[in-house]
Structure formats: structure tokens, C-alpha cells
Amino acid sequence: MSYPLENVRPMFDLKGRNYIVTGGAQGIGFAVTRAICEMGGNVAVFDVQAQPVDQPAWLTLSSVFGAKAVYYQTDVTQQASIDASFARMLADFGSVDGCVPAAGIAIDKPFLDQTWDEFTRIQDVNVRGTFFVVQHVARQLLKQGTPGSCVLLASQSAHIALPGYRMAAYNASKGGILMLAKALAVELAPRGIRVNTISPGFVDSAMTQSVRDIKSKREGDQMWLAPPNQRMSTQNDLTAAVIYLLSDASPHTTGADIPITGGLHCGTIDGVISYE
């Protein structure tokens, strides 16, 4: 059987679609929010902060891209807060087409010193918050009878453990996200809902910077330059992959993980390689 070839560019268009992005006040979450708006989509941001960190940039999303962007202060560790924000989002937007749960926290601390409360907080934000936001979206998609796409934030920390990288609780949470996405991809695919992940490497963000400052004093910058590309990632390295997975450019992609690590998931380098 032969199929007619389709134009690729229109497949990436998100015009008229509505998405939830958690952790969208700053960092990766805000970058994803901006990218969705750029592609014509509307975004409801759930974040625990009172307002976006870069308020001027947030306020220009609608005027620059012609998209609807609404901010809902939300604590993703609290069921009542998620329930309330989701209800408000539906009242404001009318429907939902997917989500990018990007809210996440980490701690750099030896395994033997990490406390019960620190571990619980990381799992509550990174795993429980993601689980129940996706559940809300999936239930609504089934109610609407429409297909949808959810892109979860895993990490290189879901795949590898690096020497000196003392983030066992964070690694455990991201491993949970990776497996959650696979389980949901299998369970929800027959209902037209796709679930995928991206696995960033070291991203130059506020969260990573706090860890980097401590580690660089102790170990230098070797870890941050370990990827074959010899640099940290930026939010700009991630957004195109998220758009691909949300859009009609990836209709047959579910249960997939896109590593965006500068090659670190393949191996590390020691020093600069010269081909002169």
C-alpha cells in the first residue's frame, strides 16, 4: 500500500490547541511555554510561585505570538490545588490537548545524609505532581473524545549515575518518570493519547546553577564539560523536541525518550580532541 507524501511544516503547527505546563514560571517550563505559544498553541501554566520570574517576558507572550497564556498559582504536591487549577483552566480554555509537566526540584547531598523529608519532597514534586496532572489531562481527553500528547521530563539521571553526582533521590524520581511514561504510553495509546519523555543532560538553569556552584568549588568544572559537545545544555536545546512530540509531526511516536545530553548518554570525554 502506498501513501501520499504530506508536507512536514504544517505538522508542527499547534494553533488552536491548549496545553498545561507545570513549573512554567521560569527555566525549562517557561521556555516550553514560550515555544508552544510561538507555534500557535495556548498555555495554562501551573506553578507554585506567585507570578512568573520574568514577568515582562511573560506579559509579551500573547502580544508577540497571538496566543493565550494564563498563569495559575498551583502547588503540584497538593491534590486540592491541582484540582482547583485544572477546573479553572477548563473554564478559561474550554478544552485541553496535552501537557508538559516540567515542575521539578533536586538536591545535591550524599545519599547517607539525605533525609526522609528531603526525599519525600522531591518525589512529591517530581513524580506525584506529574502523575496527577497527566491523570487530569488524560481523563479530560477521554471525556472530550479527542487525541492528545503528554511530554514528561525525565533526565540523563534516569539512565546513568555519574561519579560525584550526589543526587540519589532525584535520580530515583526521574527513573520513576521514565517508567511512568512507558506505562502510560502502553495503557493510553489505544485511546489516542501519546506519552513520551525527553531526557536533558546538564541544563544551564537556576536549579542546576545552585548545584554547579557547590560542585565546581569541590571538583572544578570537569563534570559540566564531560559531554562530547563540551558544554551544558540550554533551554533552547530542548524546546524543539518538545514541540515535535506535542505536534502532529510525531503521530506514531509514543513511549519514546529523546536524550538531549550533548552526547553524555553515549560516553564522556577527557580533554579536548584535536583533528588538526
Automatic annotation (TrEMBL):
<dbReference type="InterPro" id="IPR002347">
    <property type="entry name" value="SDR_fam"/>
</dbReference>
<feature type="domain" description="Ketoreductase">
    <location>
        <begin position="17"/>
        <end position="201"/>
    </location>
</feature>
<keyword id="KW-0521">NADP</keyword>
<dbReference type="InterPro" id="IPR020904">
    <property type="entry name" value="Sc_DH/Rdtase_CS"/>
</dbReference>
<dbReference type="Pfam" id="PF13561">
    <property type="entry name" value="adh_short_C2"/>
</dbReference>
<comment type="similarity">
    <text>Belongs to the short-chain dehydrogenases/reductases (SDR) family.</text>
</comment>
<dbReference type="InterPro" id="IPR057326">
    <property type="entry name" value="KR_dom"/>
</dbReference>
<protein>
    <recommendedName>
        <fullName>Ketoreductase domain-containing protein</fullName>
    </recommendedName>
</protein>
<dbReference type="InterPro" id="IPR036291">
    <property type="entry name" value="NAD(P)-bd_dom_sf"/>
</dbReference>
<keyword id="KW-0560">Oxidoreductase</keyword>
